[in-house]
Amino acid sequence: VIISISSGLFYVFFFLFSHKVDAIMASLSTAFMPVSTVVIAWLALGETINTLEFLGMGLVIGSIVAYTFSN
Fold first, then answer.
1. Residue 23 burial (C-beta neighbours within 10 Å; 0-12, 13-18, 19+)
2. Using an 8 Å Cβ cutoff, are 35 and 67 in contact?
3. What is the pLDDT of residues 25-69, one digit of tens each?
């Protein structure tokens, strides 16, 4: 239920604010949803996060940050 709510809220915010950024940033922001889902599962459900998952989340966040500062 918690993860469904987070996914639903993500799409609400995406549709509300996607028109304020360019298409590349809007598409990059959709890559953040799995990261937030993993973090919520870790916090709320006690799921474990392994090294490869941390690496993947870092790559997603790093790509968003890199694009943000390139403009």
1. exposed
2. no
3. 778 878 888 888 888 888 888 999 999 999 999 999 999 899 889
